[in-house]
Design goal:
Helix content is 37%, strand content 4%. By secondary structure, it is mainly alpha-helical. The chain has a two-stranded antiparallel sheet with strand order 1-2. The chain is flat, with a radius of gyration of 27 Å. Pfam families: GatC.
Length: 95
């Protein structure tokens, strides 16, 4: 697949990027270089290769998934500029 100047202009418009007309041929060349690199990556045989989380092998820390209420209401409300009856109090905005 090859990107021409018209397609590069369309992509720039869709991305909401202002590109001057004289810069469009260079942008089209950059898009073509990117697509060429993607084509090279598609040629790599990855059959049987496990996906990686990181470049260094490591196990992610896990914890038991237990639903709780957090028991931190007092700590959270301590940061509020105004709290009443266990809730945040905010000024009325709509009349």
């Amino acid at each position: 697949m090859s990107i021409d100047v018209a397609t590069a202009a369309k992509v720039a418009k869709l991305a909401r990027i202002k590109v001057e007309d004289e810069a469009l041929p260079e942008l089209a060349q950059e898009f073509n270089a990117i697509l060429g690199f993607i084509e090279q990556l598609e040629e790599v045989d990855v059959e049987g290769v496990e996906p990686m989380v990181s470049v260094t092998p490591m196990a992610l820390p896990r914890r038991e998934d237990v639903v709780t209420d957090g028991n931190q209401q007092a700590k959270v409300l301590a940061n509020a500029p105004d709290a009443r009856e266990g809730f945040f109090s905010v000024p009325k905005v709509v009349e």
